[in-house]
Amino acid sequence: MSSLWEQRAARNEALFREVNENIARLDKRLGTAYTAPAFICECANDSCTDHVPVDEETYRRVREHPRRFIILPDHLEGTVEKVVETHPGYLVVEKTGDAGDIAEQAS
């Protein structure tokens, strides 16, 4: 059984993912091809608003997996996620256990 913190963390991350989806939709609709989209870190910290340096193609690829999120390297929460990709400036993590189930249901 997951802790209340794990459940809250997974929900926060799903919320940040939803915000990023809206950013990507707006970027596509407005055609701001001259600047990279400013995606928000999808970490468990509900007050984090840090930007992650990731291109839209990578963001879309990560979105294909409902348990995966893009976070800044120092925002890793090893109790509910594992690193599946390491890039300059960001990590792709996959939620595990109950947190993964919650993330998948929220997508």
Structure description:
This protein is an alpha+beta fold and 107 residues long. The chain is 42% helix and 20% strand. It has a three-stranded antiparallel beta sheet with strand order 3-5-4, sandwiched between helices. The protein has a two-stranded antiparallel sheet with strand order 1-2. α1 packs parallel to α3 (97-106). The two termini are 21 Å apart.
Key features of this structure:
107 residues, alpha+beta, 3-stranded antiparallel beta sheet, two-stranded antiparallel sheet, 5 strands, globular
Structure, briefly:
This protein has 107 residues and is an alpha+beta fold.
Distance between the termini: 21 Å
Percent of residues in helices? 40-55%
Gyration radius, in Å: 13 Å
Series of secondary-structure elements, N-terminal to C-terminal:
HEEHEEEH
**Strand element count:** 5
pLDDT < 50 runs, ≥5 residues: none
Largest sheet report: 3 strands, antiparallel
What percent of residues are in strands? 15-25%
- Biggest β-sheet: strands ordered side by side in the sheet: 3-5-4
Which helices and strands, and how do they pair?
Elements lengths: L3 H27 L8 E2 L10 E2 L3 H8 L4 E4 L9 E7 L2 E6 L1 H10 L1
Antiparallel strand pairs: 1-2, 3-5, 4-5
Helix pairs in contact: 1-3
